[in-house]
Amino acid sequence: MTFQNFSTEQLQKMDAGHHLHPFTDHKELRDAGSRIVTHAKGPFIYDSEGNEILDAMAGLWCVNIGYGYDELADVAAEQMRELPYYNSFFKCTTPTPVLLAEKIASLAPDNMNQVFFGSSGSEANDTALRLVRHFWVLEGKPEKNIIISRDNAYHGSTVAATSLGGMSAMHEQLNGAVPNIKHVMCPYYYGLAEEGETEEEFGLRAAKAVEDAIVEAGPENVAAFIAEPIQGAGGVKIPPASYWPEIQRICEKYDVLLMLDEVITGYGRTGEWFAAQSMNIKADTITTAKGLTSGYMPLSALIVGDRVAKTLVEKGGEFYHGYTYSAHPVACAVGLRNLEIIEREGMIDRVRNETGDYLLSSIEAAIGDHPLVGEVRGKGFLIAIEIVKDKASKSRHEPSGAGATAVRDHAIANNIMMRAVGDTMIMSPPLIWTREHIDMAAERVKAALAGALADLS
Ligand SMILES: *Cc1c(COP(=O)(O)O)cnc(C)c1O
């Protein structure tokens, strides 16, 4: 590859000169210089300085099958030679999105049988927002327009996705969100439960916040509730078992559509194809992206339930929405083969029956007693570690986020890539991790905490 003719310093200089990175403090980055990741294999990434790093984030929660599946390069090359692009507008389509839509429908919950493609999770959530509002117009209830979301939700970074999300710093910069989106508390037991409140009680209280918002707005004005089954970028917040059944009851009672954002939880991460299945949630739309192609190509799929699809088809009239790259034939070819690999290799069964529990118990055993650790929680291949100053009072290091940032820096120095979200450390590894990779991760996380403790005290 041509970049091998350039030194790390040359690439960093050009990067600083011309490349604006996503979610970055550009001043800080230019002082520090970028880490340049040059290649990857299986569970490891390699940087231009020759470091081999265990990628506990699967890229950005997306490389579910790990790196280096040549098969995906081959199907992409074949498809590019055969037909690199044609659109699905104007009563046309190409074969691979047809096959992929059929495949996704076969894996999705029974009531979900239609798929709308985009290139990112953000785009898919834009589609979802427009589709549910369009649905209620077609139903003759245009005033049913408000969408309820949650604090700290992450639904992407376009204007609509930022508006749906509940990240206050993003809203401040947006300074003018899409109207009629309201946010309520999220079911974050460790951080928000009251003294003596059980998990079950807390789950019901968090669900009641949704009901209160619906009642306050007037159910006749509320189109949908949107949520991640497990909040991802918000800090791997796993709701108590009482939460989702109560949400389901509330949505049914007030005839409010349920929009699930499974951009992270989709395609195996929780030990089923979708969290809707592992957590028994019946949705009207499911947003998916990331693991759909394991990040080998940009692709998203909004999976649409029968109720919404039926109205869309029966009432007719054009839905004025779509992207040039909706149903991109190369991305869909890669997505289809990626799902076939996940299935063929039994990756999801392994997470459900073996490695998911082993991951959580190994991390707990390695660091559960560490003075910086307030809680370790997880489901499937999602792990959160709460970093605290004091276990009993759950107090945090100052300034906010300093504890987890110190752990993150030491994790990378110990050759494990993890992410800090506020004061929480996150893992979302590729589904291919074996017990050996998990043991390696546990050891490195333990070393990272030891390093961070020395810095912080
Ligand atoms: C990453 C993510 C998105 C946005 O996906 P992009 O492909 O980055 O646009 C949306 N929702 C959730 C839950 C995500 O984690």
UniProtKB/TrEMBL annotation:
Top-level taxonomic group: Bacteria
Keyword ATP-binding (UniProt): no
One Pfam family per UniProt: Aminotran_3
CDD domains membership: OAT_like (cd00610)
Keyword Ribosomal protein annotated: no
GO cellular component, one term: cytosol
Keyword annotations of the record: Aminotransferase, Pyridoxal phosphate, Transferase
GO MF term set: pyridoxal phosphate binding; transaminase activity
Residue ranges of the TM segments: none
Family designation: Belongs to the class-III pyridoxal-phosphate-dependent aminotransferase family.
NCBIfam families cross-referenced by the UniProt entry: PRK07480.1 (NF005682)
Protein's name according to its UniProt entry: Aminotransferase
Organism, scientific name: Ahrensia marina
